[in-house]
Design a protein that fits this description.
The strands form two sheets. Strands 3, 4, 5, 6, 7, 8, 9, 10, 11 and 12 form a ten-stranded mixed β-sheet that branches. The chain is an alpha/beta fold. Helices cover 45% and strands 22% of the residues. Strand 8, helix 8 and strand 9 form a beta-alpha-beta unit. It has eleven helices and twelve strands. The radius of gyration is 24 Å and the shape is elongated. Helix 1 packs across helix 3, helix 2 crosses helix 3 and helix 5 crosses helix 11.
Length: 300
C-alpha cells in the first residue's frame, strides 16, 4: 500500500485551513514554520495534488484543498469519536459537554433542566456558556462548545450543522410601569409610543426586531437604551418607565406575571439545539439533548 498521510499532517492541514496563514498555523500547532511547511509539502506529495496555493502575497487553499478539507476533518473526527466512545465505555473519562445558550434566550430554565439532568446522570460534567450568535457559531466550528442553543431560522449559513427543535418562544411586551388595561394587545405603533429598551446592534434579537418593525413600515426604531441581556432589560424596566420585547418563556421562568402584554402582530421564534455533523461526543450529546427535549415537552 502507498504511504498514507499521518494524523499530525492532516491535523496541521486542518489548522492551516482555519488560520489561512503558515506562521499562525505553525504557532497554533506548536512547531516551527519550516517544520509546518515541510508537513504540508509532504501531504501534497502523498495526496498527489497541490492543496495550498503559495505566492508572494500569501497563501490559500486551492480548489483541490477545499475538496480535501472535509475528508481530512471526517478522518480526525471519526478517530476522536472512536477513542471517546472506548474511553467512556471503560470509564476512563467522564462524559463532558460544553453548551452555549443564545444570550437573548436566557439560561434560567436551561439551568433548571441541567440540574435535574445531573440528578439522574451524576457522571456528566456540563458547562453552560452565555453567548451571542456569531460567537456561538465560531465556537461550534472550532469545537470549543459541543452544542449551541439558538433561534432558527437565521440568516447564517447553517449547512455544516444539524438542529433539533426544542420549543417555540413567544415574544411579548414587558412594561411593568406602564399603566395599560389588563389583556391589552399592542400594535407596533403603540409599542413605540413608550421608551423602548433594545439589544445592541450586533445581536440576533436586534436584527430580528428590526425586521419585525420594518415589515410594518418602520425603518428606524427609537430606543431609550441598549442593554446586553434580557435580565438587565427586565431589571431596567422594573426600575424605570420603559418597555422591552422579551421571551414570554423567560418571564414565566422568572415568575413574572404582571406588566406583560401580547403583540397584535405575533412574534414567535423557534428554539433549537445546533451542533456540528460528526461530533466525536455524539452519544453524550444525544443523551443530553433527548432529555432536555423530553423535559420541555413534558412541562416546558
Amino acid at each position: 500500500m502507498d504511504e498514507l498521510p499521518t494524523l499530525q499532517e492532516l491535523q496541521s492541514f486542518i489548522t492551516y485551513s482555519k488560520m489561512g496563514n503558515f506562521t499562525l498555523a505553525a504557532q497554533a500547532a506548536n512547531i516551527t514554520q519550516s517544520a509546518f511547511s515541510a508537513q504540508m509539502k509532504k501531504l501534497e506529495r502523498l495526496v498527489g495534488v497541490k492543496l495550498i496555493a503559495r505566492s508572494t502575497r500569501g497563501s490559500r487553499l486551492t480548489a483541490e484543498g477545499e475538496k480535501f478539507l472535509p475528508e481530512a476533518e471526517h478522518i480526525i473526527e471519526t478517530l476522536e469519536r472512536a477513542i471517546h466512545s472506548i474511553r467512556l465505555a471503560n470509564k476512563l473519562e467522564q462524559p463532558m459537554l460544553n453548551v452555549g445558550i443564545l444570550r437573548s434566550i436566557g439560561d434560567v430554565r436551561m439551568n433548571a433542566h441541567v440540574s435535574y439532568f445531573q440528578q439522574t446522570n451524576p457522571n456528566f460534567s456540563i458547562s453552560i456558556y452565555d453567548m451571542e450568535e456569531e460567537e456561538m457559531l465560531l465556537d461550534l466550528r472550532e469545537n470549543r462548545i459541543d452544542i449551541g442553543t439558538c433561534y432558527l431560522p437565521n440568516n447564517k449559513d447553517m449547512s455544516s450543522y444539524e438542529s433539533i427543535a426544542i420549543r417555540e418562544d413567544s415574544v411579548v411586551y414587558y412594561a411593568p410601569k406602564r399603566e395599560l388595561p389588563a389583556g391589552k394587545v399592542l400594535s407596533c405603533e403603540e409599542l413605540l409610543d413608550y421608551p423602548m429598551v433594545m439589544y445592541p446592534p450586533k445581536y440576533f434579537m436586534s436584527h430580528r426586531l428590526k425586521s419585525y418593525f420594518s415589515e410594518e413600515g418602520r425603518q428606524s426604531l427609537p430606543h431609550l437604551v441598549r442593554l446586553s441581556n434580557p435580565y438587565a432589560m427586565i431589571d431596567y424596566c422594573q426600575r424605570n418607565e420603559a418597555g422591552a420585547l422579551i421571551s414570554r418563556h423567560l418571564l414565566d421562568a422568572l415568575g413574572i406575571k404582571d406588566g406583560i402584554y401580547a403583540l397584535a402582530k405575533p412574534l414567535n421564534l423557534q428554539v433549537c439545539f445546533v451542533y456540528r455533523n460528526n461530533n466525536s461526543k455524539w452519544e453524550t450529546m444525544k443523551t443530553f439533548m433527548d432529555y432536555i427535549v423530553q423535559k420541555v415537552g413534558t412541562n416546558g
